[in-house]
């Protein structure tokens, strides 16, 4: 019994011999059952039905908005703000003088614009955006729609 254990221990230490002995019979059996009527399977024939595709994130493939689309989106965001009355809202309406918003309301409108267009507007620039037309111009410059 100890001789058998010693032999198994020696074989397990010499793993390359064990691999060769175990793999050779499997290879012989596979070659015996091989169908020679069919063409050999190559890596190119296995992957031939697959086509190469390149996937991009939406940031890369999105088209630039037109100025009219930007105007509509800005007016939609302004109209959805609860303190803005839709009948007074135009592109040239001043947020504070014409629409009666205070500075906190102005900040909330700017934050809503950031959410709508997906980028942050720095505080220095936000202070200059006093009309929807100013926001349209800022977003158009940021999106680089002017050629």
Automatic annotation (TrEMBL):
<keyword id="KW-0596">Phosphopantetheine</keyword>
<comment type="function">
    <text>Carrier of the growing fatty acid chain in fatty acid biosynthesis.</text>
</comment>
<protein>
    <recommendedName>
        <fullName>Acyl carrier protein</fullName>
    </recommendedName>
</protein>
<keyword id="KW-0496">Mitochondrion</keyword>
<comment type="similarity">
    <text>Belongs to the acyl carrier protein (ACP) family.</text>
</comment>
<keyword id="KW-0597">Phosphoprotein</keyword>
<dbReference type="InterPro" id="IPR003231">
    <property type="entry name" value="ACP"/>
</dbReference>
<keyword id="KW-0444">Lipid biosynthesis</keyword>
<dbReference type="GO" id="GO:0005739">
    <property type="term" value="C:mitochondrion"/>
</dbReference>
<keyword id="KW-0809">Transit peptide</keyword>
<dbReference type="InterPro" id="IPR036736">
    <property type="entry name" value="ACP-like_sf"/>
</dbReference>
<dbReference type="GO" id="GO:0006633">
    <property type="term" value="P:fatty acid biosynthetic process"/>
</dbReference>
<dbReference type="Pfam" id="PF00550">
    <property type="entry name" value="PP-binding"/>
</dbReference>
<keyword id="KW-0443">Lipid metabolism</keyword>
<keyword id="KW-0813">Transport</keyword>
<feature type="domain" description="Carrier">
    <location>
        <begin position="68"/>
        <end position="143"/>
    </location>
</feature>
<keyword id="KW-0275">Fatty acid biosynthesis</keyword>
<dbReference type="InterPro" id="IPR009081">
    <property type="entry name" value="PP-bd_ACP"/>
</dbReference>
<keyword id="KW-0276">Fatty acid metabolism</keyword>
<comment type="pathway">
    <text>Lipid metabolism; fatty acid biosynthesis.</text>
</comment>
<keyword id="KW-0249">Electron transport</keyword>
